[in-house]
Design brief:
This protein is mainly α. Helices cover 48% and strands 11% of the residues. The strands form five sheets. Strands 1-2-3 form a three-stranded parallel sheet, covered by helices on one side. A three-stranded antiparallel sheet has the order 4-5-8. The longest helix is centred in the first third of the chain and has 16 residues. The structure holds one RNA strand of 78 nucleotides.
RNA sequence: GUCCCCAUCGUCUAGCCUGGCCUAGGACAUCGCCCUUUCAAGGCGGUAACACGGGUUCGAAUCCCGUUGGGGACGCCA
């Protein structure tokens, strides 16, 4: 059956988030798998907003989800469809099911149901609907009914999951679920079926938490006379304590990762490896992912979200990025960090050169921006420890010498600067570290930086001389 | 409580379907060494896992059963 669908080359997948929050890590992974599957098969990827819970859905979250999708570059071919715009369609199908006796009105109130559920749970019984309105002859006066779907009471339902294999459910376990609320709005388990059928979705790839809903949905498909799509249930993403990933575990919103200086490709790469692998390969370009992605090597067990590994991957991507690209990416961070001002002009060629020295030691754009400060800003801030260790009387004579020599230097380039340093250590009979470290602190404020000669070149003659002068002044009167 | 899913280093995973090539491979993290003006990056090396118990088999990480552990679902949420 699958081969059939694939041969027709009409794979259609969808991502169907509910706009009750930002796009989170788990949702993004689901979206990614659907996107990759569609792209791999040359199919269609649909975005559908499941906003039937009008009390919890907001416009703001719809925009946030779309923003997240765009940032991750998970482009969709159709949509975003919105279920709230399709209420007439669901209504039509509900009416049809009622006419055919496949659904019925339920007059139990939400409060009564809640009461019975709690009671059942406290007595250790399955909290299922007891079916009391199933065979009602007429309406109950003074009540607005909800509509329930009539599930089969015996037999079993088989889900042939693309990832889990065959999963068997006893129909006796399924209860008659509400497909339309008493206020006339349809519910998830119904709309998802109507839409997936209507939108001709061939592969439903979603979180594990939906596996139990699948048999119920299959009965709805059949009642509607529609083809049942293929299902693939992805394992959950857990936090470090092995419980479902949530805010408690730190940032879960995709946008939070953008703000922390992650590259979208790095996040995508990290996410795809949560539940999918390709031999020993860790780093994949998008093209490779599209080419290599298959549900065959999707995993079945839950994965713990590991921020450390994501950071490492991010560093890989920052390392690989060209300095020109990185210059563009880091701009918002420089602005936000007050390192450059809005409207301030900055030489992009020069910035790229500075980034070149920093990118292999930055794991995020935030770190990159932070390091860029001493290249760009007029004044530097000293790391107290570095200052104490290296800006002292002992290095004062070296500072004076280096200041004079650099002042006299015409070609202010790394190679020339190096010659100046080498000349001094030779003459004084000292090690490079004895002079390079104090200068590093004087010029960058830190005991850590890229190679000091290139740093000096990029910082430039004026600023370097000023900083050396300031260091000398500081040593002479430490109160400043 | 009922149902469903899952089970290899701390973490992500390869291997499992099609038993022997596994004295279990890779990656992150961690430790050590090398490189080195510092920090990274890089290179080299180390520590570290088949949850347990029964089967089946000449042989089991791989197949079967059970136990235990973890996760999920059971909504007029999605």
């Amino acid at each position: 059956m699958e081969a059939d669908i694939l041969n027709k080359n009409n794979v259609r997948t969808r991502f169907a988030p509910s706009p009750t929050g930002h796009l989170h890590i788990g949702g993004a992974r689901t979206a990614l798998f659907n996107w990759l599957f569609a792209r791999h098969h040359g199919g269609v990827f649909v975005l559908r907003i499941e906003d039937t819970d009008t009390s919890r859905s907001t416009e703001q979250y719809i925009e946030a989800i779309i923003e997240g999708m765009k940032w991750l570059r998970l482009d969709w071919d159709e949509g975003p469809y919105r279920q709230t715009e399709r209420f007439d369609i669901y209504k039509r199908y509900v009416d049809r099911l009622i006419d055919e006796g496949k659904a019925y009105y339920c007059y139990c109130s939400a409060e009564e149901l809640e009461q019975r559920r709690k009671e059942a749970l406290s007595h250790g019984r399955p909290p299922r609907y007891d079916g009391r309105c199933r065979d009602l002859k007429g309406p109950v006066p003074g009540r607005t009914p909800a509509v329930r779907f009539r599930m089969p009471e015996e037999g079993e339902t088989i889900v042939d999951d693309l990832i889990r294999g065959r999963v068997v459910f006893e129909n006796a376990q399924l209860d008659d679920l509400i497909i339309m609320r008493s206020d006339g709005t349809p519910t998830y388990n119904f709309t998802v079926v109507v839409d997936d059928a209507d939108m001709a979705i061939t592969h439903v790839i979603r979180g594990d938490d939906h596996l139990n809903n699948t048999p119920k949905q299959m009965h709805i498909y059949r009642a509607l006379g529609c083809d049942v799509p293929l299902f693939a249930h992805l394992p959950m993403i857990l936090g470090a304590d092995k419980t479902r990933l949530s805010k408690r575990h730190g940032a879960t919103s995709v946008m939070a990762y953008r703000e922390m200086g992650y590259l979208p490709d790095a996040l995508v790469n990290y996410l795809v490896r949560l539940g999918w692998s390709y031999g020993d390969q860790e780093v994949f370009s998008r093209e490779e992912l599209i080419e290599k992605f298959s549900l065959d090597n999707a995993g079945r067990s839950a994965a713990v979200f590991n921020p450390e590994k994501l950071l490492w991957l991010n560093s890989q991507y920052i390392n690989k990025g060209t300095s020109e690209e990185l210059a563009g990416y880091v701009m918002p961070f420089l602005l936000k960090g007050g390192i450059i001002q809005e409207g301030q002009s900055i030489d992009m060629g020069w910035l790229s050169k500075a980034i070149d020295t920093l990118k292999e030691r930055s794991r995020s754009l935030l770190e990159l921006a932070h390091s860029l400060r001493y290249y760009i800003a007029e004044d530097i801030e000293f790391d107290p420890k570095a200052k104490e260790k290296f800006l002292n009387e002992k290095s004062l004579p070296y500072f004076r010498t280096i200041l004079d020599r650099l002042r006299a230097l015409d070609r202010f380039e790394a190679a020339e600067i190096e010659k100046v340093f080498m000349g001094i250590i030779e003459k004084q009979g000292i090690k490079l570290g004895q002079i390079a470290q104090p200068v590093r602190v004087a010029v960058t404020g830190n005991s850590v930086s890229p190679g000091i000669f290139e740093v000096i070149e990029i910082v430039g003659k004026d600023k370097t001389l000023r900083r050396l002068e300031r260091a000398i002044a500081l040593i002479k009167s430490p109160i400043i």
